[in-house]
Amino acid sequence: MPNKPPVHRAGLRFKKLDLHIHTPASKCFANQTVTAEQIVQTAIAKGLDGIAITDHNSGEWIDQVKKAAEGTALVVFPGVEITCMVGLGGIHLIALFDVTQGTRDIESLLGNLGLKSGEYGDTNTVVQKDPLTLASIVVERGGLVVLAHANSGKGALTDMRGQQRTDLIQFPKIHGAEGTDFRDVAAQQKRKRVVDLLDGTDPTYKRKLAVYQASDNPSGSGDGSHGLAGIGTRCAYFKLDQINIEGLAQCLADPDVRIRQDYEFEVVGYPFIKRIKITGGFLNNADANFHPGLNSILGAKGAGKSLLIEFLRFALNQPPSNDEIRNDYLSKLEHRLENYGSVEVTVVDETGKDLAITRTWDPSDDNPYSTGGTKDPAELFPVLFLSQNEIIKIAENESEQIAFIDNFFDFRSFQQQITTLENELAELDRVLAECFAAFASQRVIELRIEGFKKEIITLDAALKNPVFDQFSKLEIKDNALRVQQRFLDDLIQKLGVDQLDYGQIELPALPEQCEDDPALKRVADLSTRAKSGLLDKLEDATRALKATKQQIETEYAKWLPEFQAAKKTYNEAVQKEGGDYKNLAQKRAKIVKQIEAEQQRLVPVKQKSDQIKPVGIKRDEAISSLKKAYEAYSKERQERCAKLEHESNGRLMVRISESTNVDEFRNRLSSLKKGSYVRDTEIELICTKTNPGAFVRAIVRHGIFEKPESLEELAKSVGIEKQRMFTLSEFLKNEYPVEKLLALEHKALPKDRPEIKYKVADNTFEPLNRLSVGQKCTAMLILALSNGTFPIVIDQPEDSLDIRTIWEDMCSKVRKGKERRQFVFTTHNSSLAVASDTDKFTILEAGATSGRVIFSGSMDHAPVKDEVITYLEGGPDTYKIKFGKYRIDHIN
To answer: I need a surface site. Which of 207, 321, 494, 616 has the fewest CB within 10 A?
Structure first.
């Protein structure tokens, strides 16, 4: 691996600059006693990061101001405001040079322009050169040329006319213009502001020119003089990595993304990935800091660009959903991060708070996090990740398209509600299955009791006599009294279990950092008293039940002698009768005990069976709530899709067809029916002509309650032979637990179906399944780059795209969105990286066994600029040949 010394810079940041400031070197400066130190301190007090000293035809004070700024963060551009011979009485041009230059360089320029030292500082001094020649001289010396206050006196748009003015504006060595009329409402309505005239749409000028505000530091006296108080009264924000002439040139070359006037500049907070640090594996010790805006990761093949993306996904627990892509992702982690390799990622949430997440590759321990906590990073910090070719897989699968659409806004409230309801329904399914089992047991027990009772009737007829009649009546009463006792015993036992369960619930502990907080201590006391009060009430209820049981036992004890006397008389009569009568009586007594035992078994079974209706009602309510949650979810999806469609600028139609996707029902039922000999075509009819709820209920009514008519009606409605439906029902009943069948009703609810169409020609839209791979990818990337705040991380988004669409469908969206959203791309495409104005490049290099981050920063400085040209253009020589062949300067 090449041994290049690393260079890392923060990337582009907006800097507040006033690029037109006069000093006492200008003879029209009002207070000639002002010092360079006062100018610097005033600029700092106004929050300026940089200033340009641009005196009239003079550079005398530049070195003084630069010296005064030493030790401060203020950067000073050397410059000069020159009056050149043109127009009504000469116009003013601003020449700006790199911060490394000074007074001597400006005076050398002025000498070259024919000015003598006695003419320095005088606004009436006119350089005897036309502005095109003057601009060429400045550019040859490495400077930039700007039209000073273009809309006011001595300004190019005010004091020049006709073709001469047009030629000046179209001259490539004019880099920008100052405008003082940005907030002139009347001029704005007529599109006559400087920025309107020079935005590239004017049919005369046919050129887009950077326009920005600068103060020209007026004294405030109204006489055109300059003064200290005017510094920073008008200024602009320039997006720079370093404040130097190269960075300024980049801003003037791309003002839409690089320049903001002071009144329109705002700082927007949004979540972004701040840093990744890798320990172990191919990228061991790799450490990269990301910009909140657009990041482009460059490097040769095999340098580790894709690995960096996969490691980010791993740490943030957001793996690919597609099986093929996920397997590739896991393989990269296994072979390139290796066992016990770790990834540390620092993210910044929407509140500006840093969160560090460290995860270790250790499949045997579920790849643990070392940062603690129970929250899933994917919930805390959602990111839209797309590995190579993943966008193609999404475009080909409706379920993944829905999940993809859901990425663009926060559906967690819906998803949490649905998860809660699904968990509740799973428990209700379990309880209802127990109730069904109890219902089946109840029928068996009741049939057995019915048989015993028939035997008793027969025996009673054979044993009939006055003594037996009296005893049998009392026997019934005895059994009823003992049933009441057992009922109270059951209640007391269940209440005891509740007491034990509630008693074992631990109160939540207060955090150590807050354990002395008065409000938390009061709340904790309330919780303690609530638990204690509950246990006391349970204890009171237990005592009350035991007292009631005692009363029942007393009643029974008072009555028992009467029963025992009758029983004794009956036994004596049986003995007296002897023979067959005695045998019949013994048989009857045995059957009575069997009935009593079965009745005892029946009580809890019937109690459980009787819960079928209330549990069913509760389950129906939960399913209804689940459907409403899905309906609300769908409505939000539809609203979001309307926004996505609008944001596509007419390129897409994005709709949601609510609850029309029965794939889940089909997949689950097809899986369940395996081995039943039911045909796939019959399953298809069921899934398309009925819904999971109707199907499950018909199966349950037939299988549990033996009501075949419901199954017959279902078979008729879907167009299947009755016997085939009965075959399926019997198979499902015998092969699967009831709760698995019940789950079909809510787990297989029809899902929303996305309808995404891409504009292939004027007013012609085609669905994704009719598009080429490139068109599919373009459509999905248009969605991916829609408005939102969470970060987007894509590995080579330009893959499979038509190069003609990259600017319109990607670059333009990224340029507009990167001040409100983070983008991280690996790319080989210069349009995406350079035309989109990457805020920070990260350059990777690798040898055979390891890779590293070697450079980072913007292309405003070397060596990053050199690396960008190498990786995206093939090097400067290659680009020069291409540029020469394109002959772009000859294209109108």
So the answer is: 494
